[in-house]
Amino acid sequence: MESFALHSLSTSSFSLSTRASLFRRSNPILKSPPFISKSPNSSPALRSPAFFASEPISFSSPSKPNKTHFPIQAFQSPQPKTTLKPPPEPPLGAKPIPFIISVAIGLVVRFLVPKPVEVSPQAWQLLAIFLSTIAGLVLSPLPVGAWAFLGLTSSIVTGTLPFTTAFSAFTNEVIWLIVISFFFARGFVKTGLGDRIATYFVKWLGKSTLGLSYGLTISEALIAPAMPSTTARAGGVFLPIIKSLSLSAGSKPDHPSKGKLGSYLIMSQFQSAGNSSALFLTAAAQNLLCLKLAEELGLIISSPWVSWFKAASLPAIVSLLATPLVLYKLYPPETKDTPDAPAMATKKLEHMGPVTKHEFIMVGTMLLAVSLWVFGDALGIASVVTAMIGLSILLLLGVLDWDDCLSEKSAWDTLAWFSVLVGMAGQLTNLGIVNWMSNSVANTLQSYSLSWPAAFCVLQAAYFSIHYLFASQTGHVGALYSAFLAMHLAAGVPGVLAALALAYNTNLFGALTHYSSGQAAVYYGAGYVDLPDVFKLGFVMAIINAVIWAVVGSFWWKFLGLY
């Protein structure tokens, strides 16, 4: 999900205990490392038996007796002492230039741009504060939560919104569902359940690099509906596995060898994650927010979990199956075969031992939660209540403790800044700003005699492309989803189709750049992909995904009766 939802997660499964002392060598120097075999007629393959091992690896040579080597010490003239200056402390407070630009945008809109006749002074002033807040999210004069709080304070101090109205979104059910989803994700990581599931797929499909990629992609798609944080899946489950696989193949980060295996696996998993998140309503927090904002515009989708999955299933599955293969051609790994990966995965599973009690509890809780999310409408149980029941079970049975929840800073930060954005967006709708903007755009499109399918394509492309300016999927939704949905409706686009297509795009543009989402920062930060490749392949895969979703989706949605 989100760049502001990064978790402090371990990204390595094994460690090396081979530090040599500068003046003591108890063992002879090895001329070649052990366990490495080379075949002149074969491509590089996984050969390290240390894959996924948690024990330190020690290198020693049994063939020669130990000798003591004494260091040769050369006389050196005394050198003058030099004092190292401590690194400068990071500046405190707001960054001046981003702060000035963000505030200036709001002031220009408020005092220099003529107010339309149809818009009230209160609505125009709130729009100025909202735009200044959005500018701050892009330019980051302060951390996102702090800047959102300043925007909230400004709306109250200026009399634009009363206190109770300004804070009304803090009781929003969807926002609390998003917060609880962070705790669910923590449970998956803490128990090791996500790691175990992914390792099984490595065991089953990991004999080749392409099969390995498909195993990781499919395992994420299966985990996604019960682990509603793309960032947590990336940092807590899949990056550690990919790094272990890559290192065991001699593919190191920030090294010429990264192209052996790591670069391809990272890029494939990164580009596939958006389709996994688009497949299920509960696979990403922003999905729930999209439907909540659609509901505020009067567009209510019946049986949302089932409706979402039915509409997304065929195009998302086609894209998931196509992505590893397309990248295998466009961004090929040097290592094509990984014959030892299944055995290594088996060894890791043996090291993990049998499924623990907490893993069983996690599985049962997630099955209960997903079942209630699917059938909750018929039973009269809201989605957030289902999440609360699930979290209560995890707390009662000791899978999570309250300290786990308190230490999940991303959850509480999201609660703060997201509530501000959603509250402002809702008030802009109530005060008529969104309707005014959508009608203006719709009239412009009609002046070009565009049919609703053409208007649909133009608006979807604009919504997608604007994400180059955002560093958060949820921030993009809070800022623009309502306005773009209203534009679609004003242009005559069928409501359910417009709402779902915008929501699916919200997941797909998470792989555009290295800053476009939380998982983007996680995967890019691993050091296996170069920045130009991220932008180039992000753009190419965006086009491919757009074609697949447009062609496959148009026939599928017609069949389902969405238009």
From TrEMBL:
Plastid among keywords: yes
Pfam families: Na_sulph_symp
Record flagged with keyword Mitochondrion: no
Membrane topology: Multi-pass membrane protein
Compartment(s) of residence: Plastid, Chloroplast inner membrane
Top-level taxon of origin: Eukaryota
Main location (coarse class): plastid
Database matches in InterPro entries: CitT-rel, SLC13A/DASS
Span list, region Disordered: 59-88
Membrane spanning stretches: 96-113, 125-150, 170-189, 358-375, 381-402, 414-438, 450-471, 483-504, 537-557
Keyword annotations from UniProtKB, A to Z: Membrane, Plastid, Plastid inner membrane, Transmembrane, Transmembrane helix
Similarity remark: Belongs to the SLC13A/DASS transporter (TC 2.A.47) family. DIT1 subfamily.
Matching NCBIfam families: dass (TIGR00785)
Protein name: Dicarboxylate transporter 2.1, chloroplastic-like
Organism: Prunus mume (Japanese apricot)
